[in-house]
Design goal:
The protein is an alpha+beta fold and 878 residues long. It folds into 5 domains: 168 residues, 2-Layer Sandwich (Nucleotidyltransferase, domain 5); 63 residues, no CATH class; 223 residues, no CATH class; 117 residues, no CATH class; 155 residues, Nucleotidyltransferase, domain 5 (2-Layer Sandwich), CATH 3.30.420.10. It has 24 helices and 32 strands. The strands form 7 sheets. The chain has a 6-stranded antiparallel β-sheet, sandwiched between helices. The radius of gyration is 31 Å and the shape is globular.
C-alpha cells in the first residue's frame, strides 16, 4: 500500500460525483501575488456564510485561514461573525508559540468582521500588517477565496455521495480540510502538511466519508449476551487523540472513538431512515456563498482546523499533539486523556479494569437504532417491533379513555402529537421496545390554555432522612413505579389534539381527539397527576407533611408507614407487614404499579447491610468515565489541588459553553445526591458557566479522575441512635469577586442528611461576617429538618438543643453578645435570626478547632489528609 498519493493517479481518475458537484463557469486569469519565504509569514483569511440549515453544532459560518508558504488550511466554524476576532487571536497565540515563527501579514477582504477597530488595534499592537483587497475585486485575496471554493466543492461532493442530511455540512467541510491538506498540487514537490511539519505524514488511516462504522461497546456497558457493537457513520477524525469522529446512530450524537471497524462499501445514511439528498438541496445549502469567484490560482491547498463543530485532529500524522491541534470555539473532550499509538485506527479494544458496571439502560440492544420520528421508525429494520410498541401504547390510551373523537372545531388551536421511541431493559435483561405518544404542548400559553403547571417532587434531603430513619428504626424499604401515571388524571381545560402520526385513518377525515386525560407533553399534566395521587393517598389514610409535600405518613402509635414520591416513582418505608400490604393493595386497586426488584431510586443504588443502609452512584460514575474516555485513566487523590481555587488572570483559551455546562451539570447531579466530597469544586467551577476557559475544563476533568479512584464510595447510614447535629464554616473573600463561600452539614448521629456549599450573595467585610452568614444559612436547614422529624413522629432524634459547631470564636461571641454594634448594623436581620434561635434553645453554638471541623471541605480546596478525615466523619465509605 502506498503511503502517498501519486499526482498522476489523481489526474487520470474520473468521478461522476465530482464532475456533477464541481462544475463551474470559466475561470478568471491568474493573478500574481506576493510569495512568502516561511510559514506564518503571510496568512490569508476569508469568511463564508450564513449557511442554512445550521450545522449539527449550530454553526452558520465557517472561516478559513491559509498559510501562504505551506498552503495549509485551518478551518473554523462560527455561530456569529463576532467570533472572528477571538478565533484569529487564539490562532496567532497558539501557532506562534508552537512554531517559533511570527505572523507578519494578514490578507483579508473588506468585510466588517475583518475591518473594525478591535482587530485593527490588535494587529497594530502585534506588528502585523493588514493587507485588504481592492473593493469589488476579491481576486486579490485569491488564496482564501480559492480555499473556500475547494472546501465547498469537496463538501458538496461528500454530502451528495454519502446522502447524509445537510446538517452535517460542517463535518463535510472539516473532512475536506483534512483531505486537502494531504493532497498533492501541481508544481509542488511536497503536500501542504509535509511542508508545515517538515516530514512526510502517514496516510493509512484515511477512510471514506459517510461509510458505515461499527463502534465497539466496552464490556462494562453491556451484558454477556449483548451485541458488542453498534452502527455509526464515519464523519472525520478526532482532534486530541488518534481516533475517528463517528455519528452514533442509536444515541443521535457525535462521538470520538478509536476502536472502530469500517465497511466502506455501505453508506451510513441507509440506516438513518432518510431520503436521498438531492443536488438541488445541496445547492440551496450553499446558495449563500455563490459569490465566491470561481477563478483558479496556482495556490496551495488545505490543512485542518475545527471549532464548536468537528473536533479535528492532526495527531493521526504521528506527530506530537501540540504541534497541530486546533484552537477553535471548543476544546475536545479529551484534553487530559493520554492515548496510545493508533495502529491503523481499528480493532484496538481497550481492556477494562473493572467489570462491576451494569448500566443496563445504556447497553440495551446496542445494535439497534432508536428512531426520531414515525417515518424513521417505519423505514427502520425494526419496524415490526416499533409498530407493536405503538399499538400497545394506543391500547393503553384507549383503556384509560384518554380522548374522544370529535369533529374538528373551527378557529380553535390544535395541539400536535408526536411519537417518542426508546429501548429499555427489564430486570431479567430482556430488551423492550417502547413507544409513547406525547402532545406538543410547548405552544400552550399559561393563563390562556392552562392555569397551573407546578408539581412538587420529594426533596433529596427528605429522602436521605427517610433512609437514615429506615436504618435506625429497622424499617423495610420498597420501591414502586406507576405505569402510565399521567393518564390516571383528568384534564380540566378543553384541549383538541391532532391524531397520532401514522394512525390518522383510525380517527377519520376532519376528526380530532378531544382530550379527557392528562396526556404526556402538556404543561399541566404533571400537576394533574400529583393532585390525583395526593387525593388517593389521603383516601388511604396517609397524611401529607407540611415540611415536604411529597412525603406522607400513616401511624397508629406503634406501627408506622412512610411514603415519598418523585413523579411516578414511589418509595415506601414501614415496620409492619400488615400495614404495608394494606397500603400497597389500596394503591394497586387504583393504579397499575410495578415493584422494582432492583433497589434504585432517583438514580441512586440503595443497599441494605447488616448494620445499616448505603446510598451510592457507582454505575453513574462509570458511565461518566466511559463517556469522557477516562475509564482507564490514572486516578488522583483529591478533586482539586489546594490553591487551585484561587484567582487566575483570564485567558483567551475559551471552550464550548455547552460542553462545559453539560459536564458541570453531571458533576452537580453527583455532588447533590451522594458525593459531598466534590461539592466545593463543582460549586467553584459553576461560577464560570457563562464563559468557561480551557483551564476550568481541565479542573472539571480532574474531578472525573478523582471519581475514577473513589467510584465505589457510598454514603452509609448506620443503625446506631444519634441526635441531629450540625457544622458550619465559611471561607472569606473569594478572589474572583470578593464573595465568600458558605458550607454546612447536618447529621443524624453520624449519618449525613444535608450539606450545602454555595457562594454568598453579598460581599462580607470580614471573616466574622462571612461566618455569621454561613451560620444563619445552616440554621434555616436545621429548623426545617427538626420540623420534618417532628411531623414524622421521630422526636426522639431531636435533642433539647441542636449542637452547631463553628471554628469562628469571633462569630460565636458576636451572636452571644447582648446587642449589635454599629459595625454590624447591615447584618442585623441575620444576627437577630440566629440570636433568637440561640435564646430559644433551638441551637447551641460550640467552638471547635478548624482541624476537627467536618464542614471545612465545603468552603475551600483541602489537602488529602483533611479530605480523608472529613470523608471518614461523614460516613462516606468505600
Amino acid at each position: 500500500m502506498k503511503d502517498y498519493i501519486d499526482i498522476d493517479d489523481v489526474n487520470d481518475f474520473k468521478c461522476e460525483t465530482c464532475d456533477i458537484s464541481k462544475i463551474t463557469r470559466k475561470t478568471h486569469p491568474n493573478i500574481d501575488v506576493n510569495q512568502s519565504s516561511e510559514i506564518l509569514e503571510l496568512i490569508h483569511a476569508d469568511l463564508c456564510g450564513p449557511i442554512q440549515p445550521e450545522s449539527y453544532g449550530g454553526a452558520k459560518y465557517f472561516m478559513v485561514l491559509v498559510d501562504d508558504f505551506s498552503g495549509m488550511y485551518f478551518t473554523y466554524f462560527l455561530k456569529s461573525k463576532n467570533e472572528v476576532f477571538d478565533i484569529f487571536s487564539q490562532f496567532k497565540t497558539k501557532y506562534e508559540n508552537l512554531t517559533d515563527k511570527r505572523i507578519k501579514k494578514l490578507r483579508t477582504d473588506n468585510g466588517l468582521e475583518f475591518v473594525n477597530e478591535q482587530l485593527d488595534s490588535y494587529l497594530a499592537n502585534s506588528g502585523i500588517f493588514h493587507e485588504k483587497t481592492i473593493p469589488y475585486n476579491s481576486e486579490s485575496n485569491g488564496k482564501a477565496e480559492r480555499a473556500n471554493r475547494i472546501l465547498l466543492e469537496r463538501a458538496r461532493s461528500l454530502l451528495y455521495e454519502s446522502e447524509l442530511p445537510l446538517k452535517f455540512w460542517a463535518e463535510a467541510i472539516n473532512f475536506s480540510t483534512r483531505v486537502s491538506n494531504v493532497t498533492p498540487r501541481k508544481g509542488k514537490e511536497k503536500i501542504p502538511l509535509e511542508t508545515w511539519i517538515g516530514k512526510k505524514p502517514k496516510l493509512n488511516y484515511l477512510k471514506k466519508f459517510g461509510c458505515v462504522a461499527y463502534i465497539h461497546v466496552p464490556k462494562v456497558m453491556r451484558n454477556k449476551f449483548d451485541i458488542p457493537g453498534r452502527r455509526g457513520i464515519m464523519l472525520g477524525y478526532a482532534r486530541d487523540r488518534r481516533g475517528y469522529r463517528i455519528y452514533d446512530i442509536r444515541n443521535r450524537k457525535i462521538i470520538e472513538e478509536r476502536s472502530i471497524k469500517f465497511n466502506e462499501s455501505l453508506k451510513g445514511s441507509t440506516y438513518l431512515g432518510k431520503t436521498k439528498v438531492e443536488t438541488w438541496n445541496i445547492d440551496s445549502l450553499f446558495e449563500s456563498i455563490q459569490d465566491i469567484n470561481e477563478f483558479d490560482h496556482k495556490t496551495k491547498v488545505n490543512h485542518l482546523e475545527i471549532s464548536a463543530e468537528p473536533a479535528a485532529n492532526e495527531n493521526n500524522y504521528s506527530i506530537p499533539f501540540e504541534t497541530l491541534d486546533v484552537a477553535t470555539n471548543t476544546v475536545s473532550d479529551q484534553i487530559e486523556t493520554p492515548v496510545d499509538q493508533m495502529n491503523n485506527g481499528v480493532n484496538q479494544i481497550p481492556v477494562r479494569r473493572s467489570e462491576r458496571l451494569k448500566a443496563k439502560q445504556m447497553s440495551t440492544n446496542l445494535a439497534c437504532n432508536v428512531p426520531n420520528s414515525y417515518l424513521e421508525a417505519k423505514n427502520s429494520a425494526d419496524w415490526q417491533n416499533w409498530e407493536f410498541a405503538m399499538k400497545n401504547e394506543l391500547d393503553s390510551l384507549n383503556k384509560h379513555k384518554v380522548w374522544e373523537i370529535v369533529d374538528r372545531p373551527a378557529k380553535t388551536k390544535l395541539v400536535k402529537s408526536k411519537w417518542v421511541y426508546s429501548l429499555k431493559q427489564s430486570d431479567n435483561g430482556e430488551t423492550k421496545y417502547k413507544a409513547r405518544l406525547v402532545a406538543a404542548g410547548f405552544n400552550q400559553i399559561k393563563n390562556k390554555d392552562y392555569l397551573e403547571s407546578y408539581s412538587p417532587v420529594v426533596n433529596i434531603e427528605s429522602f436521605r432522612l427517610l433512609i437514615a430513619l429506615a436504618s435506625k428504626l429497622n424499617l423495610m424499604v420498597r420501591f414502586f413505579d406507576v405505569k402510565t401515571a399521567y393518564l390516571y388524571s383528568d384534564i380540566e381545560e378543553t384541549v383538541y389534539m391532532l391524531p397520532p402520526p401514522g394512525f390518522e385513518r383510525l380517527v377519520g377525515d376532519g376528526k380530532v381527539c378531544k382530550l379527557k386525560r392528562s396526556i404526556y407533553g402538556l404543561p399541566q399534566s404533571g400537576r394533574n397527576w400529583y393532585m390525583k395521587i395526593k387525593s388517593e393517598l389521603e383516601k388511604f389514610g396517609l397524611t401529607q407533611l407540611a415540611s415536604d409535600n411529597c412525603v406522607f405518613i400513616k401511624s397508629d402509635g406503634q406501627n408506622m408507614l412512610l411514603l415519598c414520591m418523585h413523579v411516578d416513582d414511589l418509595a415506601i418505608f414501614c415496620n409492619n407487614d400488615e400495614m404495608y400490604q394494606d397500603i400497597v393493595n389500596s394503591i394497586k386497586s387504583v393504579f397499575e404499579v410495578h415493584e422494582n426488584k432492583t433497589s434504585k431510586f432517583l438514580g441512586m443504588e440503595i443497599v441494605k447491610h447488616k448494620n445499616g443502609i448505603s446510598l451510592s452512584q457507582s454505575e453513574y460514575i462509570e458511565s461518566l468515565l466511559v463517556k469522557y474516555n477516562l475509564n482507564e485513566c490514572k486516578s488522583v487523590k483529591t478533586p482539586i489541588v489546594k490553591g487551585e481555587d484561587k484567582s487566575f488572570p483570564p485567558t483567551n483559551e475559551l471552550i464550548d459553553i455547552t460542553m462545559y455546562r453539560e459536564l458541570i451539570g453531571e458533576l452537580l447531579y453527583l455532588a447533590n445526591r451522594t458525593r459531598p466530597d466534590i461539592s466545593f469544586v463543582t460549586c467553584y467551577l459553576s461560577q464560570f458557566n457563562h464563559k468557561p476557559e480551557k483551564r476550568h475544563y481541565i479542573l472539571a476533568k480532574r474531578v472525573l479522575r478523582y471519581l475514577m479512584g473513589t467510584k465505589d464510595k457510598k454514603l452509609f447510614y448506620d443503625n446506631n441512635f444519634g441526635f441531629v447535629n450540625a457544622n458550619s464554616d465559611a471561607s472569606w473573600g473569594n478572589a474572583e469577586n470578593g464573595k465568600s463561600f458558605s458550607g454546612g452539614v447536618i447529621l443524624l448521629g453520624n449519618s449525613l442528611i444535608s450539606w450545602k456549599c454555595h457562594k454568598q450573595k453579598s460581599v462580607s467585610l470580614s471573616t466574622c461576617e462571612a461566618e455569621l452568614f454561613a451560620i444563619s444559612e445552616i440554621c434555616k436547614d436545621i429548623i426545617w429538618i427538626v420540623n420534618l422529624l417532628s411531623e414524622l413522629k421521630c422526636k426522639q432524634f431531636i435533642n433539647s438543643t441542636v449542637i452547631l459547631n463553628s471554628d469562628s470564636q469571633a462569630a460565636i461571641q458576636w451572636i452571644k453578645s447582648t446587642r449589635s454594634s454599629n459595625k454590624s448594623r447591615h447584618m442585623n436581620l441575620r444576627f437577630h435570626f440566629v440570636k433568637d434561635l440561640l435564646e430559644d434553645n433551638v441551637i447551641e453554638l460550640k467552638y471547635i478547632q478548624t482541624e476537627l471541623l467536618i464542614s471545612d471541605f465545603l468552603t475551600k480546596a483541602v489537602n488529602e489528609e483533611k479530605l480523608n478525615y472529613t470523608v471518614k466523619n461523614i460516613s462516606l465509605t468505600s
